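Section 3.1: Structural characterization of target chains.
Under the original work plan, the team committed to producing a structural model for every single-chain target entering the pipeline before any wet-lab resources were allocated. The record below documents one such target. The sequence was received from the expression subgroup and is listed exactly as submitted; it comprises 337 residues.
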Amino acid sequence: MKSQKVFISGVAGFLGSHVADLLVRQGHHVVGADDLSGGNFDNVPSRVEFLEYDLRDRRKNLKALEGVDVVFHAAAMAHDGFSVFAPHLITENLFATTSSLVSASLQQRVKRFVFCSSMSRYGNQNSALFTEDMEAKPQTPYGIAKLSCENLIRNLCETHGMEWVVAVPHNIIGPRQKYDDPYRNVVAIMINRMLQNKSPIVYGDGEQKRCFSPIQDVLPLIPHLLFDPKAQGEVINVGPDKEFVTINELVQMINHTLGTDYVPHYLNPRPNEVAEANCSSQKAQKLFGYKPTSQTQQTISEMVEWIKAQGPKPFQYNHEVEIESPQTPLTWKERIF
């Protein structure tokens, strides 16, 4: 494949930086932008043309997208549960960033726009195994905003003639994940607390079930999303579906890696949280021959070693709760992480 110019939004973040690494190794010219509100400059590969600015700025997007072939839009305030209590902050950021970037992409004649959505788009379904043909029924403002972005992208791309792809990652985990953010990344939050000799905090009874996606099982799909003709106009779940675990089991996996026996500190359930959520990888297998090979336990071990090397950190409460009610978790209302 010939080298292409790829723009990555959120390039200093967890997923964006790993994607940048992959594309640079494959010989592509990568331009990346990030405002560093949720990312870290140290994550950005040295061969990436890095730009620091707010992606809501359409004029700066127009400049950054000159000559770009493909956009990979990963930037987001990925705060699903927190969005119930800070809906304006989360939805305004998601939708304004996306509308600015897709508008500029169309103006600059970008060939393909790849949008990172979320499994939150599915909401409550009759089956815990989510397939792309299901009607999306998001339960949180974050999921609603992600679905609205999908609809906007589809509408504008089909009107003006740009290829589009919607990627649906589900609970990606691995080194470089931000672990001092009290609003997201359950595995990283737990590891950070447990390395500080604190019990993990669990909402509800811990019997919610999730499938976690090791970053090394996500990356092989990225070139298909960016360049493969079969991905055009598709919604595609990204990640494996083989390890479906409860949050209580997740705590035990981290305990196993650390050699500890922490008992969770249980808090009230979060409102609108889906009880069981797993995304089918059958479509990716059929389209691209996708074969996940990593194990969640091994990835947790890699995260523990990386966080140890960085050093455990206090949690940074950088966002205000907009709505305080009896349902607001104490983790955010009283900042108890």
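Residues 20 and 333 are 36 Å apart (CA to CA).
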